[in-house]
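Sorry to interrupt, but I need a hand with the structure work. Could you write out one complete protein record for me, on any chain you like? Just paste the record in under my message, thanks.

. . .
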Amino acid sequence: MRTPQPPQLPNSKQLRGMLLIHQRLQENWAHPGHCKTGLADLASALEVSDRTINRYLGKLMAPPYNLPIEFDREAGGYFYTSEVPFFPLGAGLTMPELLALEIARQSLAVFQGADFADKLESAFEKITGGALSDKELGAGVPIRELVSYRTPGAGVTDSTVFAAILGCLLERQVLTIDYQAKGKPGPQRRKIHPYHLACIENRWILIARDPAIEEGQNPVRTFVVARFSNPQPWGRERFERPVDFDPSQRVNSAFGAHSGNGEIAVKLLIYRDAAHHVRERRWHPSQEVKPSDHGEFEMNFKVSDLGDITRWVLAFGSDCKVLAPRELREAIAAEAHKTIKLYDPA
């Protein structure tokens, strides 16, 4: 018995034509009396022959699209017999592709509050034509019951703040904000030049120039977007981003969200009990691992700031020992002593 072949998906030119036909049919559905779309009108709009339009219509009515199109002989045009809110672009997707899209859809938690989540959900619905929510497998199991993605600790972002940042980034406009810096009693008003927005470890950060930084210090700093409030563009004032500014270098040199200006060599000894957990992930682009015969291994990084890696090392407790640099060893030791005092019964 011959195995049935999957339907051939349209090329980009055919897809554009099919999308325009859908748009016309969809628009006419909303009109009283359901206006009909004529063959000549479609051929003229697409600058193709009637024969080509007939081929497009045939594809739309056949699998995998199965759109409810009929021809009204009296009106001399085509129409939808029922509402089709989205074009089913995802109708021809394979099961592995649908699974991959479902994982991507569930990962949108990091965009909550960033004014992206709803737009991305809408985009997924339009791209897949509801295939993610409606598609079932084998014994009627929805896709989202087979795969899932969890985003722990997704950063909290105010949509108003996010919209202001995006606007100033696009327009090269100076942005004023109230910023709650770490360790400060309250927020301080800042006027900054936004250079680059990034999501690192599920937290949004903004790399921006702070003109108030004293001369002789690097004015380009990393700001945590969750600490912003009361954003306002600074009138019509514009700025120019330096041509030599490299956001990838700035982001990749950091161990976490914060970045600095140096290059610090970090050397750690990971003991056996934590070895499997550390070895299973890529923590930094510069990461190098040297295993030993006893199940321990040495781990090396080159980072621009020690703040985030200090917290990372502390999370492993006695399963991780800092070999270098000295300032990181001292920071870990000082924090360990503070922690001991918290639990000192005396």
